[in-house]
Amino acid sequence: MSGGTLNLLIGLAMGLNLLALGSSRLPSLIRSMSLQGVVLGLMPLLMEPERLDWRVVAVALATMAGKGIVIPWLLRRAMRAANIERELQPFLGYVPSLLLGAGGTIAAVALAQALPLLPEHAGTLLVPGAIASMLTGFILLIGRAKAISQVCGYLILENGIYLFGLLLIHSTPLLLESGILLDVTVGVFVTGIIVDRIQRAFDSLDTRKLTTLRE
Amino acid sequence: MVSLLLATAAMGMLLSILLGSRAPKAWFAGVLVGAGTAFGAAVLTLVSGEVWRLHSGVRVGGEFIHLQLDALSALFLALLGVIGSLGAWYGREYWSEAAHPRSAGAGRAWWSVLVLCLGLVLVAANGLHFLMAWELFTLAAYFLVTLSRHSRVVRDAGWLYLVASHVAVLSLFAFFGMLAARTGGWELGPMRDRVELAPLFWFALVGFGLKAGMFPLHVWLPSAHANAPSHVSAMLSGMTLKIGIYGLVRFTGWLPVPESAGWVVAGLGLVSAVLGVAFALGQHDLKRLLAYHSVENIGIILIGLGFALVAVAQGNAAWGRLALAGGLLHVWNHGLFKSLLFFAAGSVLHATGTREMSRLGGLWRVMPWTASLFALGAAAISGLPPLNGFVSEWLVFLGLLEAALAHRAAAWGAVMAAILLGLTGALALACFVKVCGVVFLGAPRSAAAAHAHESGPSMRGPMLVLGAACLGIGLAPVVFWPAVSRAVDVWNPSWAGAESPTGLPALGMFHVGLLGVAAVLAVWLWRRVQGGVVTRALTWDCGYVLPTTAMQYTAGSFARIINEWFAWILRPVHHEERSMGSFPARASFSEHTPETVLEYALEPAARMVMQVSRTVRRLQHGRVQAYLLYLLVGLGALAALVLLGNGT
């Protein structure tokens, strides 16, 4: 019934993926990432409105609060504290990233056709959206040098995993869901602190310089 | 009685470990008491044939202590007692506090650890404790090999020894681990009827064979034996190689073996014997040469063991008993004469400071004791009557010839083996004629050799004892037969009760007679020399005006012809600068025989592994982004595998 709305939201999230790949400045990357988090947080409420229970509502609200407010706030704070240049330093240029992301999205749709899905999931963009988000996350992780952009890549990757999780929303225990969310938040929190430390130790947030730490 | 003796031995060795670094005299007393009582216990066991056992309630590593001394262990323990005490005696002067203030104390303590752990390996009847004692004695031997660690060559030799030993230990871990997994416990003992254990033999062969120095696993042996202090070389060659043999004999006796085991062991033995002596002929370093002779003698022992296994596979044929008895007696004999030879070589090294044979010469006159005892050991190792080497090789020959006469499947193999064994003996004789001729006869080739001096009583004493033992076994083999025969019966109980070979007393009589004739001849020659019939003069000098000591046969030139027969495996390296023109400025010639297996097989293989590893290591560079890419690629490959392989 609300398949159309759902697909629209997922389509929006996929668009935000491309926006994240194409943005050349950290604040806009964080913004598209957090917006994607909010969009995804809305989804459980729209998926099956007739079976809505307090559990699903709690998960949705917590997701939106975490990904839309807390995590971006933590990242912006870390960015300000470490006094980072707003410019991203890509390994992989923005145009190749975009092309890869677009190619990945098409491949994800094609791949979802090939996967043996349940009939009720076959019509939605849920699975292609999940795969596309994970791919985007990976491209950001591989193609960007700064620690904060790595965190953003990781969060988009996590968004993809969350989309997969939506397939199972009624069979996943609440504890597990909130556990994942908590993990992500703490992860970002810790990264925020580490970013500051890296900045002090290396005078830069370029993860390429971390190669000196290998044995 | 045996319990008391063994307890005293353990106490003596423990005490000597504690006192080793500080109090040399107390250490020596401890080693003498320890090794002496262990020898006593071994002799008692060999005489009575009773098995001593100790089941203790104490756990070590989660396993109850279980010790056992039967005739087979006792055979090796007796040899350990002899070399352990004589080596300590010899080492007191050879590696004295005054000459080596920094390493003498450590050398004494590690010696005691080595002897104690070797003894523990021999009495352990629990796989886990066997492995522990094995590892400990390996480490102790490593520290002894590298006593003079300021020299790079010694450190390299020690490193090679350590690596090779641990390959052996790894193989033994596999052997004992799988044995324990299949039997459900670490307890060792006879399990001849459990046929499913037979394939484990191959692990034992690699592990014990590497330790025994069997060709082609001998690569560590020449450098370790050549660079260790001489009393340690004697212990390594005389005893620790035999521990490898002990392991093979022990576990081929206790466990079933695969069908082909006998032929493989005999074949490896033949290869070791012939190539060991061929490599020895190519050496110009006195101790390295002796080390290669260890490979040869291990080969002879393995021929005995191999044919015994063949005999067992063919329905317990009686000739197998003779072959194994010969092999086991050769364990003793090689331990005795090789220790003697290493002691004598150490005495030469001590007096001249070099092991290079081309710098020695004419030592007979200044070192009469060392020279005579070396000659005695050389005659023994070459298998000449009336010495002990002949007795054990004769027993092996007897086994082989009876196998040939039995006209069974083994006949042809036995004939081949007998011919090759004969060839080995002849080559060994040639090799020791070379050594004695170059080192002890002729004129000194360097100032060091000219100013040599005879070694002191502490070094001569052990050599005299070993020489006497070599002669004793040669003259009265009948006395030693029961001991060897009991060990053989432990190995294969179905042979028990067989009588001794009929020729053995006759052989003893023949040896006594031969010694008598030799004595008479010696007296007659001595009289002639004293009587002035023989005069000293220069040898014919080819018309040169000023003959120098360099114009003698060198070690290389002596063995040139035989080396050329074996050039296909020895691969000697020549550096030659010929004299050219009417007034040649200079000419030089040098020759070097590499360790072929190490330098042409193992080192290239190791280099290839290193190269591949270095290439692979470039993948690990510390860039997180690339690591994530690896993850993604791996994930994609897995997904592709799942999706594409869906139908199959």
Structure, briefly:
With 215 residues, chain A is mainly alpha-helical. Chain A is 76% helix and 0% strand.
Molecular structure report:
The complex is a heterodimer of chains A (215) and B (648). Chain A has 215 residues and is mainly α. Chain A has one domain. Helices cover 76% and strands 0% of the residues of chain A. Chain A contains 8 helices and no strands. In chain A, helix 2 (26-47) packs antiparallel against helix 3, helix 6 packs antiparallel against helix 7 (147-166) and helix 7 packs antiparallel against helix 8 (174-202). The longest helix of chain A is centred in the N-terminal third of the chain and has 29 residues, at 54-82. The mean pLDDT of chain A is 80. The termini of chain B are far apart. Among the domains of chain B are: 318-494 and 553-565, no CATH class; 571-577 and 588-617; 618-648. Chain B is mainly alpha-helical. Chain B has 25 helices and 4 strands. Helices cover 70% and strands 4% of the residues of chain B. The model of chain B has no long low-confidence stretch (mean pLDDT 89). Chain B has helices at 2-19, 24-48, 71-94, 104-123, 127-145, 152-183, 201-212, 221-227, 230-254, 261-281, 286-313, 319-352, 363-366, 368-381, 388-405, 411-440, 447-450, 457-475, 477-491, 503-530, 555-558, 560-565, 567-570, 596-617, 624-644; strands at residues 52-60, 63-69, 573-577, 588-592. The relative contact order of chain B is 0.08. In chain B, the strands form 2 sheets. In chain B, strands 1-2 form a two-stranded antiparallel sheet. Chain B has a two-stranded antiparallel sheet with strand order 3-4.
